[in-house]
Amino acid sequence: MMFCDPYMAQRLAEEYMKDRLREAEQDRLIRAAQGPRKTREWWLPAALIMGALLGLIVLQP
């Protein structure tokens, strides 16, 4: 049977939590940095489609 030091168990849990929080913050920063690019990638095809539809509507006799 393995005996666990309560102090070490608490310290390990705290370090584990700190690591998870660091990883979550890194992921959030990466998503924030990539956010505008994803938006621009979405807007370009939408703008092209809307422009084409507008051209078809305007050129109708």
Throw out a few tags for this protein.
single chain, 61 residues, mainly alpha, 87% helix, 0% strand
Describe this structure in words.
By secondary structure, the protein is mainly α. It contains 1 helix and no strands. The protein has one helix at 6-58. The longest helix is centred in the middle third of the chain and has 53 residues, at 6-58. The mean pLDDT is 78.
Give a concise summary.
This protein is an all-alpha fold.
Query: Quaternary status of these chains?
Result: single chain
What is Rg?
26 Å
Strand content: under 5%
Q: What is the molecular shape?
A: rod-shaped
Number of strands: 0
- C-alpha termini separation: 88 Å
Helix-strand sequence: H
Topology diagram in text:
Blueprint: H1 6-58
